[in-house]
Design a protein that fits this description.
Blueprint (H helix, E strand, L loop, with lengths): L9 H5 L3 E3 L5 E3 L6 H9 L1 H14 L10 E2 H8 L3 H12 L4 E4 L4 E4 L15 H11 L6 H7 L3 H6 L3 H5 L3 H16 L16 E5 L5 H9 L4 E6 L1 H4 L2 H7 L6 E5 L12 E5 L7 H14 L5 E6 L9 H13 L7 H10 L2 E8 L5 E7 L1
InterPro entries: COMT-like (IPR016461), COMT_C (IPR001077), COMT_dimerisation (IPR012967), SAM-dependent_MTases_sf (IPR029063), WH-like_DNA-bd_sf (IPR036388), WH_DNA-bd_sf (IPR036390)
Organism: Streptomyces finlayi
GO molecular function, one term: O-methyltransferase activity
Length: 365
């Protein structure tokens, strides 16, 4: 489903800084904000990230789901100091996370607040927790990365990010939960652009806990498939597939997609996988797909495409993530065409969706 959407004005987003009015409440700064003031807001982004982490970890937004509460009562429920929680709330009210009534000293969810609740289709709470637990410290080493090309995470953790992640089951669970959240939110609408008409068996490469394939299996009742990922990652998939009622049609398999992928499917899916890797390592994944499939097999990639999609700024932000954490990158339409073409696939088309993600369709030659 191709859709046309307007792109948010980046200038407007930069100038939505917050200030304290004489009455003591937060209000948006005029679009005519001085450049230095707008830059201060950008420079303070790391502080906002940590404030959001505290709010998410303490479950503040969950306790406001039923309506406004006094700050003191909310502090007691979350174990936070009332005076410090009040300051967090006032700051994040300027970012539309909360609505703070200074006269009554009460707080309610703002326009964005529900996204930090633990439940709900738009929940990004697990992303807030994962990014601050795993991504925050490496970014302090970005200076070195842009000089020598070594991912900042490699320096921070002493090994590649995914190797470090795999050493603790809790890290794996947190990462899988965050990726599932992204699937439900940022990537949810992108799956509507994956046309599996006529596909009998689909392999989801790097399918983690099976969220994507379960969604597609519900939409296509005759579809059978396999969730394929590293053994310690895919171990969480059977429980989700059972909850979603598709375990009779979707199985799981553990393995390394750089070495081999399940053979014999007529279509392969990779959601947000290739952007993690360099062109050389992407070539190894595509080689594995070619070895496992026959000419004419379909390949669907759910990825950002630089300069395209409903929110192209997401690709730019994710490109920074790839720079610091891994050796991958976000790619342009021409980049995707070249990568696929160089590795035995014909690019059939790129479908823009209502999400920041696009669906890249290709055929094995």
């Amino acid at each position: 489903m191709t859709t046309s959407t307007s792109t948010p004005d980046p200038a407007a987003s930069v100038t939505q800084a917050a200030s304290i009015t004489p009455a003591g409440t937060l209000a948006a700064v005029s679009p005519r904000t001085a450049p230095a003031v707008a830059m201060l807001r950008l420079l303070g982004g790391f502080q906002l990230s940590q404030a959001l982490y505290v709010v998410a970890r303490a479950g503040v937004c969950d306790r406001l789901a039923d309506g406004p509460r006094p700050v003191a009562e909310l502090a007691g429920a979350t174990g936070l100091r009332p005076e410090l929680l009040r300051r967090l709330v006032r700051t994040l009210a300027g970012e539309d996370v909360f609505a703070y009534d200074a006269g009554r000293d009460t707080v309610a969810l703002g326009r964005l607040g529900h996204t930090l609740c633990g439940e709900g289709e738009d929940s990004l709470r697990d992303v807030a927790l994962m990014w601050m637990d795993t991504h925050y410290r490496p970014f302090a080493r970005l200076w070195s990365t842009v000089h020598d090309g070594v991912p900042a995470a490699d320096r921070e953790y002493g090994e590649p990010f995914f190797d470090w992640l795999a050493r603790e089951p809790e890290r794996v669970s947190g990462f899988s939960a965050a990726m599932a959240s992204l699937m439900r939110t940022v990537r949810r609408d992108a799956l509507d652009g994956v046309d599996l008409s006529g596909v009998r068996r689909l392999v989801d490469i790097g399918g983690a806990d099976g969220t994507a394939l379960a969604s597609l299996a519900r939409r296509y009742p005759d579809l059978r498939g396999t969730v394929f990922d590293l053994p310690h990652v895919v171990a969480e998939a059977p429980a989700l597939l059972a909850r979603e009622g598709v375990a009779d049609r979707v199985d799981t398999e553990g393995g390394d997609f750089f070495a081999a992928v399940p053979a014999g499917a007529d279509a392969y899916l990779a959601c947000f996988i290739l952007h993690d890797w360099s062109d050389e390592r992407c070539g190894r994944i595509l080689d594995a797909v070619r070895a496992a499939s026959a000419p004419g097999a379909r390949l669907f990639l759910v990825e950002t495409v630089f300069g395209e999609g409903a929110a192209p700024e997401v690709a730019a932000l994710l490109d920074l993530t790839m720079m610091a954490m891994l050796d991958g990158r976000e790619r342009t339409r021409a980049d995707w065409a070249a990568l696929l073409g160089d590795n035995g696939f014909r690019l059939d088309g790129i479908t823009q969706t209502t999400s920041p993600m696009c669906v890249i369709a290709a055929t094995r030659r």
